[in-house]
Here is the input.
Amino acid sequence: MKTVIAVIGCGRISQGAHFPAFAKMDNIRVKYACDLIESKALAVKEKYPFVENVITDYNVALNDPEVEAVWVLTPNYSHYTVTMDALRAGKHVMCEKPVTINYELSCEMAKEADKQGKILNIGVCNRYHKSVELLEEMNREGKFGNLYHIYCSFRAFRSIPGLGGAFTTKAQSGGGVLIDWGIHYLDLILYILGGATLKNLTCDAYSEMAKDMKSYKYKGMWAEDTKDVENGTNDVDDMITGYVRTDKATISFNGAWAQNIAQSDTYIDFMGDKAGARLAYGGQYTFTDGSTLESYTSDHEIPNMYLREDSDFIEAIKTGTKNRNNIDNILESMKLLDRLYASAAIHKEIEL
Here is the structure.
């Protein structure tokens, strides 16, 4: 029997990632596509005729007893409200990353899921990336030896998204480059480490590149249709740097939506005493054996991460199993982001 679902939020992540995945899944019925802007939901239905109904009020779907699961693909600030409403309505929830705008509210969402006996998964899709899976397996099998330090870089050339709009308005997004891009990098690191416990950390955040939004120059802008440089807000980090100690390895990172260096550096280095690896974000990795000094670059197929995480969510509903993307397994990542921002705010190291 097919699982009946509703999709709340028909924006970019919905149209670019999840609906293409739904089109390949034969075990679901998409009964509702919901968006406050009806034209977005109508556009989805036109492209994906398997969508049965278009609505603008998500409560219609929540009040439908046939709906078993809900995808929450709305802006960050609304994840908490929509997810809590869905859980209380007795629905399983797949919520896009980040969980919500801070750690405390994320914990409330986890508690509510347990209270209602429902599955709540979070869309940290990189846990389903083949390279990440293979590196996690290598670490678990001891291929790196003592994996003592991990460095990651998520830096780009003048790529602030939707300047002046929701992306750069803290009340709506919860933060800038750290919560938008950094969550993917830091979460996959914690996943590969296998449940590391945070000890202490320090962080600095900057918002330098678009202090005068009207004079900000760029060659391309993600979500440009949402920008508002005339009357909007830019109160989030466009560059972040930090150092984290865990019980398994130390982590250092630099991230920038925008920099005056005309290239992107998006990779993660895993440094072990037996071997090391560099993961090109979203792609293959290069592994170096310290005993032979030989290196090889992986050449495996990279399956659709969204299809895999969405399919695994449906399986979790059927079995009641809390899988790798269950909120219980993501809370440490949200705690990390939250405490990094706290450290940046006071310019001091924080003990955890």
Summary: The chain is about 30% helix and 25% strand. The longest strand covers residues 147-155.
